[in-house]
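Table S4 entry, DUF2188 domain-containing protein.
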Amino acid sequence: MVETITATYVQEDADWAITVSGNGKELTARAPGIIAARDRADQLVEELGADAKATVVHLLNGSALEFTSTYMTARLTLPKLPPLEVPPPGSVPKQQTAEKEPAAADKKPQLPPSKQLPKAVEDRKQAAEPAPATEKAAEQARA
């Protein structure tokens, strides 16, 4: 025979009161939201000692449909996030400037964007320049 266990939910301010009854017993608990209340109800069902064939009916205001609707809405609703801040074009976020900012001694003078060479041209230019020689290497070359 399949046993029926009833889990009844009542909202009290921001918390939920749960009453689980079956096997001639009744257990109660509270939880901070409908999702946590549903999880707590499962724990109370286990405490009742219900067997694996027990059917649990979850009710909100006496309706399984109302419970399911409220529970699924809570599960599928995204949390409220602060609005995304989009920086104006051409600006660099503060995080990137702090990480990539070279020391003052390492900085190369920057030309305005209109005067800069494309990166490919700059790379070719650097590859064509001979590597700086040390004084020893220069003396050996002269000898």
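Strands lie at 4-12, 15-22, 25-31, 55-60.
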